[in-house]
From TrEMBL:
Residues 119-328 form the Endonuclease/exonuclease/phosphatase domain. SUPFAM superfamilies: DNase I-like (SSF56219). Gene3D superfamilies: Endonuclease/exonuclease/phosphatase (3.60.10.10). The keyword Repeat does not apply. Keywords: Endonuclease, Hydrolase, Membrane, Nuclease, Transmembrane, Transmembrane helix. InterPro entries: Endo/exonu/phosph_ase_sf, Endo/exonuclease/phosphatase. This is Endonuclease/exonuclease/phosphatase family protein. The chain crosses the membrane at residues 12-32, 44-67, 74-93. One of its GO terms (molecular function) is endonuclease activity. The keyword DNA damage does not apply. It comes from Microbispora maris.
Length: 342
């Protein structure tokens, strides 16, 4: 036994190789799971949101391999880092229009069509002061406002603060707790019912936008996958969201998921584009923007609030805005819709 141990100690190359591959292995596993076309496990759903941070940290693997002079591990580490970077870095690059040559006509139409301003905010159990939200609406002048965690008390406060003077058409589905939502618009609105997958009331409707015709909007808010028992609710809620269709479609709200989650990637594969991603703001964290911990561990900001737009829609601008009390940042996008008849 002593002779075997001495043999291992006397072979530093083995230890250097082991160190190099131990540095590469966790990042390689993460990249493999990230490329899997499915949310493989409840815990992975929680972890995958932090892929941008893991992509940044993955540079450690090739550096370790370089320092210990292990060529195979260096090549593997570089490949893993490149894979994770390919998943993440495009979100920091502006791409307001589709690259598909077949969409050239859409690109031209989208660049000159009617402008639609969309604002979304999670009110944290209705706790955002109504005056603060109404002030933000006055400043940004959105045509569409989607709200999550809208309670009856918050809805009454917003009306008293003058929200319906600015956005007179509404689909108010306020509810106690976190399950309520709302859709408020400047233009005529025809509420629609979504296929219910749980007790959450996601507001939805058809907005008659002048010059663009009917635009379908959903205030998105699936269950937060904080506990295993909510995984099914979260998954079903995202799966039930409508894909792009004959009408222009916009999904706006707190998705409780990032662009690294397979359920959101399926929506992008169906044709949607993320407004933040399209403008190079896809790494702007929206939750939590104030200190927050999970089981005693600090949670760094992730991007779980989105405005997903129909492939026929151009994205002109995107931004995040603070509201008091809530742990989410409000998100705002200026969209250019295809004009009627294009």
């Amino acid at each position: 036994m002593a002779r075997l141990t001495a043999g291992w100690v006397g072979r530093p190359g083995i230890w250097r190789g082991l160190l190099a591959w131990l540095a590469v292995a966790p990042f390689a596993l993460w990249a493999l799971l990230r490329l899997t076309p499915g949310d493989v496990h409840f815990r992975w759903v929680q972890l995958v949101a932090f892929t941008p941070y893991v992509a940044l940290a993955s540079v450690v693997a090739p550096l370790v391999a370089l320092l210990v002079r292990r060529r195979a591990a260096l090549v593997a580490g570089l490949a893993v880092t490149a894979t994770l970077a390919a998943c993440v870095l495009p979100r920091a690059l502006s791409d307001p229009f589709p690259h598909d040559p077949a969409a050239a006509g859409v690109r031209a139409a989208g660049a000159t069509g009617p402008v639609l301003r969309v604002l979304s905010a999670n009110l944290l159990y209705g706790s955002v002061p109504p005056a603060a939200l109404v002030d933000l609406v006055r400043r940004l002048r959105p045509d569409v406002l989607t709200l999550q965690e809208l309670t009856p008390q918050a809805a009454a406060g917003l009306r008293a603060a003058g929200l319906t003077t600015l956005l007179p058409y509404a689909d108010d589905r306020a509810q106690e707790g976190s399950a309520g939502s709302g859709l408020f618009t400047r233009f005529p609105l025809r509420p629609e019912e979504l296929t219910a997958s749980d007790a959450r009331r996601q507001a939805a409707g058809i907005v008659e936008v002048p010059g663009a015709g009917p635009v379908a909007v959903v205030s998105v808010h699936p269950c937060a996958p904080r506990y295993a028992v909510r995984f099914g609710c979260w998954s079903r809620s995202l799966a039930s969201l409508p894909g792009p269709g004959e009408r222009v479609q916009i999904l706006s709200g707190d998705f409780n998921a990032t662009l690294d989650h397979a359920r959101v990637r399926r929506l992008l594969d169906a044709g949607y584009r993320d407004a933040a991603d399209a403008t190079g703001n896809g790494l702007a964290g929206t939750w939590p923007y104030r200190p927050w911990d999970f089981s005693g561990l600090p949670v760094p900001p992730v991007t779980i609030d989105h405005i997903l737009v129909d492939p026929r829609v151009a994205v002109r601008a995107f931004g995040v805005h603070r509201l008091p009390v809530t742990d989410h940042r409000a998100i705002f996008a200026e969209l250019v819709l295809p004009a009627t008849g294009t």
